[in-house]
Design a protein that fits this description.
The chain is of the alpha/beta class. Among the domains are: 187 residues, Rossmann fold; 123 residues, no CATH class. Helix content is 36%, strand content 18%. Strands 1-14-13-17-15-16 form a six-stranded mixed sheet, with helices on both faces. A four-stranded antiparallel sheet has the order 2-8-7-4, with no helix packed on it. It has a four-stranded parallel sheet with strand order 11-10-9-12, sandwiched between helices. α1 crosses α4 and α10 packs across α13. The longest helix is centred in the last third of the chain and has 61 residues.
Length: 483
Amino acid sequence: MNRPALRGGLRLESHKLRPLQRPVLSVPSPRTAVLALDQGSGADAAPVVGPGQAVRVGSLIAAQRGAAAGLHSPVSGTVRCIASRPTVRGIGPCIVIDSDGRDEREPTSVPLDWRSLSGDALLERLAAAGIAGLGGAAFPTAAKLGLARSAGVNLLLLNGAECEPWICCDDALMREHAADVVLGAQVMLSACGADRGAIAVEDDKPQAVAALAAALAAAADVRLSVISLPAVFPLGAEGPLVTAVTGREVPHDGLPPQVGVVCQNVGTAASVARLVRDGLPVVSRIVTVTGSGVRNPANVEVRLGTPVAELIAACGGTTGDDRRLIAGGSLTGRALDDDAAPVTKGLNCVLVATPGDLPPRGTEMPCIRCGDCAVVCPAGLLPQQLHRATQSDDVEGLSHFGLGACIECGCCDYVCPSAIALTARFRVARERLRLHEAERERATQAKSRYERHRRRLDEQAEAERRAFDEARRRARGDGSAGH
C-alpha cells in the first residue's frame, strides 16, 4: 500500500529505553482511591453514590454525562465523601473511597459473550462499562463507535503510534498484551460495523510489531492487519494518523468518520478485551513513570484513583535533583502542582523531569520570520502569520490562517529560535476566536429573530390592511344596494 509522505513533524530522541527494560510493574491498590469526576475529557460524570455507601470493584459510582464516560470503583470499601481534590487538570470534584483491602468484585461483573450480541447491544455494554479513550482524551468509546456506525465507516484504525517522547505505556501494552489488543479490535469491529481494522505502529517498536503479528496469526482474522509507520512526532495525533494511513484528510472542523475512519487507542482496545473476557469495566490502566527525577523508570499497571506519589514510590522514589512533575509527555503534557493528584483514564505518563531533561525556555525574542515553524507544522499552517494575528488580536486573520486546524502539538515551539511560546498563545487565541464566533452567531441569530419579527409584523399589517379594504368594499356595496 502506497502511503502519502508525512507533512511536517519532528524526529525526536525518544527517551523510552529505560522504562521498557523491564516488564510492566503491578502497583498495589490504594488504601484510599480518589476518583476525579473528570477523567480527562473535560466534562464531569454524574455521581450516583453518597457518603457511607458500600461499593465493590466494578460498582458504578458516577454515570455517563455528555462527554464524560461512566466511572466505576477500582476498590471495594466505603465512599468517604464527594469533595474537591487536586487532579491532573487542577482542583476538581472527586469521589473519595476508603478501601477495605478485600477487592470484592461486583457480582454483575461477568464475562461477555460478545459474538452473540448485535452491534447496538455491544455499544450499550461498552457504555455501561465506562470504556473511554485511554490515549488521553477519555471520550466515551461507545459514543465514538456509535457515530462511526451511523456514518457507515469502513476502517477501524487502532492508534499504537505513541510518538511523543518519554511515553511508552502503549508500547509496553502491545508487547505484553498483544492478544488483548487484537480481541478488543475484533469486538470494536462488530460494534462499529467497519469492514476492516488496522493497528498503526511506528517502526521504532519492533517488539510490539512482532507481538501483534503473532497475535493476529493466532486470531486468524483476515480483517485485521498491522501497519508500520515512521517514528515522527506528532503522528499519533488523530488527524495526521488518518492521513498517513489512508491518504484522506479529516476536515479541521470535522471528525474521522466523515472520511470513513474511526480511531481508537490500543489501550482502549485492551480495556474492551478485559470487559468481554473478565467482565471488568475500566478500573485500571498502564502508566509510564519516567524522567531523570525518578530512580527506576517503569511502566506500571495501576488502579484508577491511585495518587501519583504512590506510582513514583513504586518506581524507587525520586532522585535528589531538582525536578518538576508533568502529566503526559514533554511537548503536550500538563504541569502537575501536586503529587496527590490521582490516576485517571486519560493519564498515560508521569514525567518526573529535571532541568537536564527539559532545559528552561530561553528569553523570548522577536520573531525573525525564519519559517522553521511552517516547515514542521503537521497541519500545513503558517504559525508566524498566526502569531502576528494573535499579537494584533486580528480575529479575521486568525480565522483566515486556519487557527481552527491547529492541533496544539508544540512542534512550532520546539523549533522556534526566538523561544516564542506559540502553542500557548494559539490556545488562548483559539478560545478568544471561539468566543468571538459564538458572539457573532448570537448576533446572527438575533438579527434573524428581528427580521422574522419584522416580517410577521409586516404580514400582520398587510393582512389587516386587506381586511380593512375588504370590509370597506363590502360596506360600499351594501350602501349602494340599499340606495
